[in-house]
Design goal:
mainly alpha, single chain, globular, 4 helices
């Protein structure tokens, strides 16, 4: 399984969700995302179903509900 970081996952925030694995790989390549993003997407188990959001790919993706993500500190 690929290793995601906030920086890598951020390249997919504006992807055309819902999207299939192939669509996400195409989007990452067209937008100039780092090769790690494409590699991580390639390693996903593709069941032919579109992914609804980045959270389905990386469940630990911080959302607006997470305090540390939008911290004022």
């Amino acid at each position: 399984m690929g290793y995601w970081t906030l920086e890598l996952a951020s390249y997919l925030e504006d992807a055309p969700w819902p999207a299939t694995q192939d669509e996400l790989i195409d989007y990452a390549e067209r937008t100039g995302a780092p090769i790690e993003v494409v590699e991580n997407l390639s390693e996903l188990e593709d069941e032919g179903e579109p992914y609804e959001s980045i959270e389905e790919i990386w469940p630990d993706f911080p959302t607006a509900d997470d305090d540390f993500y939008y911290s004022d500190d």
